[in-house]
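Narrative progress, year one. The postdoctoral researcher (J.K.) led the effort to move from monomer predictions toward full complexes, under supervision of the PI. The following entry was the first complex the group processed end to end, covering 486 residues in total.
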Amino acid sequence: MSSLTIYKRELRSYFGQPTAYAIIVIFLALSMGLTFSFGNFMRVGDASLEWSFFFWHPWIYMLLAPAVGMKLWSDEQRNGTIELLGTFPVSMWSAIIGKFLAAATVWLAALVLTFPIVATVNYLGDPDNGAILAGYIGSLLVCSTFVAITMLVSACTRDQVVCLIVSVAICVTMVLCGYDDFTREIGKAVSPGVVEAIVSIGVWDHFRSLNRGLLRLQDAVWFTSFIAVCLLGTSTILSAKRS
Amino acid sequence: MIEVHKLTKQFGSKLAVDELSFTVKKGEVLGFLGPNGAGKSTTMRMITGFIPPSSGDAKVCGLSIIENPQEAKTKIGYLPESAPLYPDMTVSSFLSFCAEIRGLKKSAAKDAVERAIETCFLSSVARQSIDTLSKGYRHRTCLAQALLHDPEVLILDEPTDGLDPNQKHEVRQLIKRLGKDKAILFSTHILEEVEAACSRAVIVDRGKIVADGTPAELIAQSDTGSLTDLFRKLTTRDTEAAA
């Protein structure tokens, strides 16, 4: 119940200010721009959207997802409103959940607005819409993971800029680790075991299988446990800061 | 209604609050005096459940803030020292949010918001965005938030700080009026305020109570019959503390 109240407040704050609109517009411009230019959407004649469209999402999220999450707790700490939240009869958990879901909703809205591309492939060809749906789920899971990471970082600092930079660095690392060209280069220098460890913290392995329309339990577990760990960490940091 | 028992807070090696014990009964307005850094705000933050005490306990309406934080918090209205607010909201939407998070139902919440706006003279700015308000209005908006759920216990950290003389007078009158059927603990370092609004006062210095009594009793303790002289005699000046 109180999660819902906090969720509504956060959402109103996103959409009552230019933040959400700016991010959604930039996301749409970048994802469509990349799809039609480097993605060669028109030439490859592939209706699955896997390479032309979804492939670009983690690259965009690693820069933009932290912009959505950076204010979640750093603002709260700078304005001192965390003192209000902390003395309202609600648990910190409901605030964490409410804020996380609000930020994820901004991304959901952005993803929903990419519907013209789905309409286009359905008009031009005969795609597997189940696979496209799985791609969307994977995409939402990747950005939710990045939002959760940003939320964890924002609990550590009252400075939004610091939060943005640190979270972007973490997200970039997660995208690069597991990206084939990058791991191949690393593989020349270190043993295969290390490469495997590096790949395992990257998002690609899990994103790609969803992208192919494969809903594997292990990927769902990987994303949800990663998010859960970040939210737990947020709660730990916030309560440690108070005492 | 407020029972504080051997409340202690240690920050690293610094003892901010040292086994503080006092009670505030219903119908009593207790002024909490002391120099800056005496531990007033820390004590209030512990009673309201924002920060956990190192040892000791505080009970609000018989409910321990440590064992039963959620329920104890429903009995308290709290104005933090910096009067924190969400700058992106309007006064009335902020108050509605606070009422909702306090669990007030739709119509009850609406009435509570209207009542608080009236009590704190905010009707002229109710629809205005908080970041455009002057300091006096912000302070009263935060005070209104503390009154929404008609709490049995009010904890106000420097409620008249930053207000002009007219507003100070109004807030003192308000505290006096509310004090008739609530237990109020408020901190201040304006000594006239004690005589104007309190039924009892304690002076705290370096985390300990150094004087306790009605304003008249405290004045009698002073050789010169002035509260200021008593205050200066009993408390440590920060220039001395540093030496």
